[in-house]
Amino acid sequence: MAVNDALRGEGCFKACTAGIAAAKSRGFAVSLIYTVSQANIDYLDAMPALLDRLGVDHFFIQVIGVRGQWTDDADRRETLAQVDRQTWLTVVPQVAEKVARRGIPTTFPKVFLTPEENFECAGRVADNYFIFPNGRVYRCPLCEDYALHSFEIRDDQLVAAPRINEADLFPLTIPEGCVMNRIIQPRNLAALETGKPTYRIACCMLKELVTP
Fold first, then answer.
1. How do 58-63 and 106-109 pair as beta strands?
2. What is the reported pLDDT for 91?
3. CA–CA distance, 91 with 73 (Å, rounded to integer)
4. What is the pLDDT of residues 174-197, one digit of tens each?
5. What is the spatial distance between Cα 174 and Cα 123, in angstroms, rounded to a whole number?
6. Own/partner pairs for 75-84, CB < 8 Å, 24+ apart?
7. What is the C-alpha to C-alpha distance for residues 94 and 180, in angstroms, rounded to an integer?
8. pTM check: above 0.70
9. Distance between CA atoms of 178 and 27, rounded to whole angstroms?
10. Is the pLDDT of residue 115 over 90?
């Protein structure tokens, strides 16, 4: 409670857990998302028991993005910083396994590719699109807040949008891997003396699912 309320606001933990209990009592399936940062990574291991007690049906772990006004505040920027690559790989998959052993499917982003793994962008290899009710269609979530979509839906057809759009602004193949994760994971990128990345960041759509 103390950790959550310090990040989300006083009374938030109580309100959220009460809402989960109310939803479960009415027969709803409930999922819960845990946004990992330096401020709460040490408490992620406490989640399996809490999720079990609350009766949560699906658990999601996600990485914090370096965006928003808090990045201008030095103290908060350090507190809410992303965890480093080694910490993520050491903690997150293990907690996901513990949660799954309690019968709760757990999903978390891949984030870091091993040297042997190929980078594949969902927008390029899986025809993965972000479709909005107003007809805008994006290949990457990076520009979804702006009218820079690559495609539009017109007369039930997917057609190319007029320039300038996201396809003109950035490629979906960069040395670091995912364009979106390149921006939200800046502190977790490392390079050799030649400038070549020592490892790549996975597509932001690539998730790991651990089942019971």
1. parallel
2. 96
3. 27
4. 888 998 888 777 777 888 788 888
5. 13
6. 78/38, 79/37, 79/38, 79/39, 80/7, 80/37, 80/38, 80/39, 81/37, 81/38, 81/187, 82/36, 82/37, 82/38, 82/184, 82/185, 82/187, 82/188, 83/36, 83/37, 83/38, 83/41, 84/187, 84/188
7. 25
8. yes
9. 39
10. no
Placement of tokens 């990076």 in the chain: 142
212's enclosing H/E stretch is: none
Question: Tokens 């007809």 correspond to what residue?
Answer: 135
What gap in Å lies between CA 18 and CA 187, rounded to an integer? Answer: 36
**Digit-coded pLDDT (tens) for 36-64:** 988 899 999 999 999 999 999 999 999 87
CA 205-110-187 angle, 5° bins: 100
- Average pLDDT (66-91) is 72
